[in-house]
Amino acid sequence: MIKTKKNYILHGMKKSKIFFSIIFTIIIVVSVGVYFFLNKFFLYPSEKKAMEELNYAQQCLYKGDIDKALNRKKIKNYLGFSGVASKFPFTKSGNISKFYAGICYYKLGDYNESIKMMKNFSAKDEILSSMKYGIIGDAFTQIKNEKEALKNYIIAASIRDNEITTPLYYYKAALLNFYMKKYKDSKYFLKKIEKKYPFFLYKKNVEKYLMFIENKS
């Protein structure tokens, strides 16, 4: 009796495993099918349209027409960076449009909107990611939010150690601390640049600020 009951349970467990394996396989097959269906009939056409709009907005930006690049005046039959970002948010073009829009809003002095756009931009490339947080830092500096500015400069500098973005954002953090008269913190970032990045573009400025701080103390 006990053996029969045990065999019955084991048999039931095997059936359950087979059942769940079948369900799992069906889920995978359906998911793959749905992905290809969405990609063919929805995502690809959206990506194509978004790319066309993005290219036109980029041309406007290169010509220096920032208002038109963003399409702030809501020109008909044209989206601009802000329109592409809002209408096609899940496409690659929609994503990079957020980055461009963030730059445009910054140049126009709309710093809060610039921060918003940059925060919504998803950067997989490490250099672009550094630039994203650097621009957010610049925007916070402009609206006198030094704490957030410093935080974003440090993030921007730390994403990937390189000879361009890392010393640049350490330099911006140093300058911000300097103008806040936090000379000790400013010296810390300037020393990091002096020690690790001897070919930094503003090396002479770094030396001047360090000399001033050291003389002051």
Short descriptors:
elongated; Serine Threonine Protein Phosphatase 5, Tetratricopeptide repeat; 217 residues; mainly alpha
Question: Would you write up a description of this structure?
Answer:
This protein is mainly alpha-helical. The protein has a domain at 123-217: Alpha Horseshoe (Serine Threonine Protein Phosphatase 5, Tetratricopeptide repeat). It is 80% helix and 0% strand. Helix 9 (183-196) packs across helix 10 (203-216). The protein is elongated, with a radius of gyration of 27 Å. The N and C termini lie far apart (91 Å).
Which helices and strands appear, and what pairs or packs with what?
Blueprint: H1 2-62, H2 66-70, H3 80-87, H4 92-107, H5 111-120, H6 126-142, H7 146-158, H8 165-179, H9 183-196, H10 203-216
CATH topology name of the domain at 123-217, in short, is Serine Threonine Protein Phosphatase 5, Tetratricopeptide repeat
Nearest-angstrom radius of gyration?
27 Å
CATH C-level label of the domain at 123-217: Mainly Alpha
Query: Poorly predicted ranges (pLDDT <50, ≥5 residues)?
Result: 8-13, 15-43
* Class per helix and strand makeup: mainly alpha
Overview in brief:
The chain has helices spanning 2-62, 66-70, 80-87, 92-107, 111-120, 126-142, 146-158, 165-179, 183-196, 203-216. It has 217 residues and is an all-alpha fold.
